[in-house]
Design a protein that fits this description.
- Strands 1-2 form a two-stranded antiparallel sheet.
- It has helices at 9-27, 34-41, 45-49, 55-79, 88-96, 102-118, 120-147, 156-176, 185-197; strands spanning 150-152, 199-201.
- It is built from nine helices and two strands, in the order H-H-H-H-H-H-H-E-H-H-E.
- The chain has 206 residues and is mainly α.
- Helix 1 packs across helix 6 (102-118) and helix 7 (120-147) packs across helix 8 (156-176).
- The mean pLDDT is 92.
């Protein structure tokens, strides 16, 4: 991908990413075409290839942007919370919160995950991006627990994996039965028990 920048490049990138999110959600990653993304964004294929080398690279740009927004949201809300109010339940609530537009991203990432399971090279790339996200999420969660006077009983990275699994699994059920189970409801209900069960006060002996 060319590395040169112009004044219009950030706008071009933003429009391509927004168009890709819509097209991937509507058509699925496999069926979506680069031409469809370009048409939705109002650009030519040349503009696409000036910024991305492939449809996969476009997905991973979406993945990283979404991950950054989620981590920034949690961090921002945590900064607004007084240490005295930063309990296990409050930490769980920060992790469980689901934005109203999350359904679109859920469709996109679920489709790509299925694609990656069938394609080892894509799976390896996805695992790498997942690992970087978990590393940042683990650091953020560790800092939150420390502020709350807590520490994990086991591996903090494993706890992050479980939190992600609970959020994503519960979301799938919510989007299938939206009138029965609101997005985030299961995570909000059970994550406090999980965080409480796998943490202990910093002063407790090993």
């Amino acid at each position: 991908m060319p590395k040169g920048t112009t004044k219009r490049r950030p706008q071009t990138l933003a429009r391509l990413l927004a168009a890709a999110l819509e097209v991937f959600a509507e058509s699925g990653f496999g069926a979506a075409r680069i031409e469809d993304v370009c048409r939705r964004a109002g650009y030519t294929r040349g503009a696409f290839y000036s910024n991305f080398s492939s449809k996969e690279e476009l997905f991973f740009a979406l993945f990283d942007a979404h991950a950054a927004r989620e981590l920034e949201r949690i961090g921002r809300l945590a900064e607004q919370t007084d240490d005295r109010d930063l309990t296990a339940a409050r930490i769980a609530a920060l992790l469980a919160h689901i934005e109203p537009d999350e359904r679109t991203w859920y469709l996109v990432t679920t489709e790509f995950t299925l694609y990656a399971i069938r394609n080892p090279e894509a799976a390896a790339r996805l695992a790498g991006h997942d690992a970087r996200l978990r590393e940042e999420a683990t650091a953020l969660l560790g800092a939150l627990l420390a502020r709350a006077g807590l520490r994990p009983r086991g591996d903090l990275g494993d706890l992050v994996r479980v939190v992600v699994a609970l959020r994503e699994g519960a979301l799938g059920q919510s989007y299938v039965e939206p009138d029965v189970l609101a997005p985030g409801a299961l995570a909000e209900r059970f994550l406090p028990f999980l965080v409480d069960a796998v943490t202990e006060p910093l002063g407790d002996p090993d």
